[in-house]
Amino acid sequence: MNITKRDFFVSIILLIISAFFFCYVNLSIKSFDEWHSLKYATPDSKTYLDVGRWILGENTFDNAESSVAIRPFFYPLVIVILDSIHPLAVAIFQFTLWQIQILMIYFFCIKVSRLFILSILVSVLSIGILSPIGISLHALTETLSSFFITFSIFIFIFFLEKNSYRYIYAYLLSLSFCSATRPSYIYVYIFSIMILFFFLIKKRKFFYICILATTFLPISLQYYVMKKHFDSYKLSFIDSFAINDYFLSGLELYKRKVEFDANRNLYIRMVRDARREYMAEMIKEKGYGETSKKVKSDLLASLVNYPNESLRQFKDLIIENSMQPSSFITANKNLYIATFAQSKLLLTINIISALFFSVIIFNKKYFAEEIYEKNIVFSLLIFFCIYFTYISTGLTFWQGDRFIIPIYYASIMLFVHQTRMFFAFIRNTNKK
User: Fold this and answer.
1) At what angle do helices 217-230 and 166-181 cross, to 10 degrees?
2) Does 414 lie in the same domain as 350?
3) Which runs of consecutive H residues, i.e. helices, occur in 86-216?
4) For this UniProt entry, which segments traverse the membrane (predicted)?
5) Do 26 and 122 have their domain in common?
6) What would the pLDDT profile of 90-148 be if each residue is shown by its tens digit?
């Protein structure tokens, strides 16, 4: 990638602006001396620490077993290594990843739109998205997952431009690391493998089909850990815990037609605590593998016996989680309200992107065949990643916009791409 003096200067300015804004937002939450205290302030972050200490031999497997069952080892290994360097090393690392994403958005926009002012505007607006900043001081996987997704989109645009298939390899490798960080994205990785396999078959790129298999390596290491300690070929048991603790617990409200009043959360907690005890006893008796199968069986039974209630809760949770404010920026009321608007705006631009895509995909004749095919493949891959993320939020609650943080920047990049393709379609229709 050729970086001009202008781009270099803009990059420096963006880094300075983002650094000041990062400090402003996080200082409104905690004083600088207290930043390190946020690192393991959440229950989830403590489980990553447990796994990391187990990897380094500072914790026994018996003590860390419940955490190892739900947390892939890649991110815990990163944070314990950083912790050994400095108490703020995790925050600095995640701040750096966040800044790199801002730069990737700028260069992506330059490549896609070729409009300098627009690229600066989009980049500055991206800096203003608050939730990725607020969560960056916490030892949680959202920042790293967001980085891998943003990088995968950024690197794929080089394939569209240069037609070099090594960029497809880099795209899949990035998604593989994302899956090893956040297990739910294994489905995005598999979908991408499938789409790109057929695309490469059509292009007769058989060599690249073979080497794509090596992108599975980061995930295979996690599978090895799970097979060795739990005799299960799963990346993680976190899905079973989410279904049990949230979806099946919340479903009791719909099944019993409990009113959504002030006692709703208290009632769910009572049901959840009971289901957690039930699951813990089952794990002791039958192990994680059999317990996971039982939870999936309970879910299937609920879908069969209570289809309306299940679908209603699933729909309500997706809507709720798609438009929630941040749970990490509650100290500053004005910023907290702003995150509520931003999550709604994110959903809006994704809907607009989908509308643009629906027009483009049915008007192939207005594009050159090579350009059309590659851009449709790119769009399908990113749309799947974004909407899969939204759909997966239908299994949980009480998270604010946490689970959609990894797709904030992906959504912006996709919107820029779809807008450019849509206006190219408009120009081509006028010519014909």
Assistant:
1) 30
2) yes
3) 89-113, 116-127, 131-135, 142-162, 166-181, 186-202, 206-212
4) 7-27, 85-108, 115-137, 143-160, 167-200, 206-225, 345-364, 376-398, 405-426
5) yes
6) 999 999 999 999 999 999 999 998 899 999 999 999 999 999 999 999 999 999 999 99
